[in-house]
Structure formats: structure tokens, C-alpha cells
Amino acid sequence: MLLRPIPIQSAVHRFDTRVFNARPWEWRKPVAASRRLVAAMATEHYANVTIGGGNAAGYVAKEFVAQGLGRGELAIISDEGVCAYERPALSKAYLAGEGAARLPGFHTSVGGGGERQTPEWYAEKGITYKLATKVEKVDAKTKSLSTASGNTITYDKLIYAAGSRPVYLSEFKVPGSDLQGLHYLRNTADADKLVQDIQAAKASGGKAVLVGGGYIAMEVASQLANNGVPSTIVCPEPYLLSRLFTPKIAEFYEKFYASKGVHIMKHAKATAFEGSGKVQQVVVSTKDGEQKLDASLVIVGVGARPNVELLDGQVEMVPKPVGGIKEHVTNARQTATQAVRAIKGKTTEPYDYLPFFYSRVFNLSWQFWGTNENAEVAHFGDFAAGKFGAYFISNGKVVGVFLESASPEEQSAAQKVAREQPAANLAELESKGISFATSRM
């Protein structure tokens, strides 16, 4: 989401309204100096402020440092309790049993090839990082914002990088959606609660249900299986990850998941959750009728909503579509860099963006570059052996490439093809397979 114009958290000290006198039995009102001290503590000013502590915030800090940043010129305000990190890890290695990923291991900007930006890194660079600080109001005209603790912060430039939040089933008044044991995965606090419930289910022989058939469901289901927790994916679409997979590609993963003990219900919808305080069963509606699934924990992944309410009516929201799929990780990094460069007067030209998607489940690893919008598909490789791919063709050009279990050289070649979009036809691509890409290196 682009904001035009570019709109471009701290421990709060509480002072008693009384000042203790030299004599211990007497209290008196604050002196003028004390009033000035309280006022100074309540208002802060920074040349640059970033609202949000996700991927983008970390890359904003990285680019400011690269462009030259004086001490105290940048403040990052986040309602999370930890500094910016590579969020995709939460549904992957963070949920693993032995050797699970933990901070500070995946702080930004390690995912983009940069150094690990720990809390110490921000302090060394003179960046103020306000954790567990919620912004309740932004006034773009006066260039000020108010926090939940009552502090006011003013700025010259504001980068709004508040990201998104999960779509909650309670928004649709789904019965039982307020029960304990329903999980949404967005931050480390969510992931920590999920890890606890996974371990409890493993110890008690419990089962899990995953609502949704996308990234969250597939990645979490693989980690549940690795932890020995049986699970069922309730997928409303005709096949998994239907925004990106073809039916043939989805069939491979569905069979692979079944071999790992993951049950998949397609054309299915979770309509209610039952239990006494904590979820015990999920009511699922299918074309064959209604059934109930035992579940000691549920993971919901049915989409996200952008956190734009603080700027409602103050700035123009301009949607920035990227092909048929709205990718977030790479785009978040690049938009963050672009915003800082614009502030520094470096450039406002569109950046070179190639959509990129990936996932790691079980011992599999797939990547996709480009777009699949309005495209024909040429599959290739050995699906039985788990090493295959697909080219997506539109108007006689290759516009996207999907690979499973590819070598680094093959990945580089596929990325190059997706970027250059060479002319090709289905028969040629199906015949040549990956060599069509590697021969162009």
C-alpha cells in the first residue's frame, strides 16, 4: 500500500504530583522546574519516525544507516516486545522441536543478506527503538502522534510501516471463535503460545486442526507432523495454495502430506468450534454434510488486513498491485529502502521488483519467481521423484517459474528467466524443462 504523501515505543517515568519535602511528614506541590521536567518527558521530537516494528522497520533502519544517520535522528515505534525480525521464520523453524530458531538468530536484516540488527545494533547506531509502545493517534497536519501511555512524539518525516494483522474468525461471529486454543500466527508472542500448545498436544496425544489452505496451514502442518502431532487441514478451495499452485503441483504436495499423516479436507469450511472454555472439537461443513473433528489446538490462517486506520482520512491510499499475488517479504524490504531514499532525496524512480515466493516444508523446498496471472502452464521434471517445476507463459513470454528441490544454479537460472521474460511456447518448455533456463546462463 503506497501512501501519498509519504506520511513519513520507551520506558515511561511516572512522577507523583507531590514532591517530598525535606521533612518526612510534609508534602508540597511540584516546583516549576519539576513541571518543566514532566513536560519535557512527555514530548519528544525526531527528524524521522517509523511506526511499526516488522520487516520493513528493520530495513528502514538499515538504509538510514547506509545513507548517513546522526544519533537521535531516527525513532522506531513498535507495539511488539522485540526488535524487528524476519517474520517468515515464525511458521517454519520457530515451531521446530529440537534446534528451533530463536531470537536473536533471525533479527533483520539477515534474511536480506545484511548484518543481524540486535537491540545493541540500534543503540550503537544512535537509533531510538521504542518497544511495547502502542500509537493511538497520528495527526499528519501537525506532524505528531500520541502513544497509549500519554506521550506525544513529533517528527519531520514519518514512515508508516504498521503492516497487517490476521483476519480473526470472531469478526464473522463464528461460534466458539473466542475459545482458548485457537491460534493466529503473526508475531513471536503468538508463536510462543503456539509452541506451548504444540508441546502440550504432543504430551497428551492431542490433535490439531488448521483452518485455511495457504502458507500458514501448510508450513505449520509440516512442523506439527515433525513434532508428532496429527493434524487436519480444512481447505475451502479445491486444492492447497490455489493462488499459486496448479492442480498438478498441488496434487504432489497433497500426496506428500498424506504420506506424513496430514489429512486434508478440500472444499471444506470450519463453521463452529466447541469446547468448555478451551476448544475440543471443530465443526466442519463439506459437500457431503457436516462433521466434527477432535482438536486440542486450532491454527487459523485465512488472510490479513492492513493496519491503516491511524491514517484514515489523512492521506491518500494508493493500492500497488504486484501481479496476481500480493507478495510481502521482498516487497516490504524494497519499499522500506525506497522510502528512505526518497526522504534523503536520492531517488523516487520505481525500483526493480521481481515477485518472489518460497516455502520449506518437511524436506522439501520450493521457489517461485514472477507472476502466474492469466498464464498457461508448462510442467516439467520428475514429479514422482519430487524434483520438478513449471513455466508460466503469457502473450508468448515466460512470466513465471516454479521449482521444487532445485540446485542453486537452477534457481539462479529460473530467476533470470522470470526477470527477462524470453519468448517461448508450451511444447518447447515442456520438452527442454529446466535446461531452457540453465542454457541461458
TrEMBL record:
Cofactors demanded by this protein: FAD
Cross-referenced InterPro entries: FAD-oxidoreductase/Apoptosis, FAD/NAD-bd_sf, FAD/NAD-binding_dom, FAD/NAD-linked_Rdtase_dimer_sf, MDHAR3-like_C
Highest taxon of source: Eukaryota
Leading EC class: oxidoreductase
Domain Monodehydroascorbate reductase 3-like C-terminal: 354-437
Enzyme Commission number(s) from the entry: 1.6.5.4
Keyword ATP-binding set for record: no
Keywords: FAD, Flavoprotein, NAD, Oxidoreductase
Keyword Metal-binding carried by entry: no
Domain annotation FAD/NAD(P)-binding: ranges: 51-325
Family the UniProt entry places it in: Belongs to the FAD-dependent oxidoreductase family.
PANTHER family associated with the record: APOPTOSIS-INDUCING FACTOR 1, RIESKE DOMAIN-CONTAINING PROTEIN-RELATED
Name used for this protein in its record: monodehydroascorbate reductase (NADH)
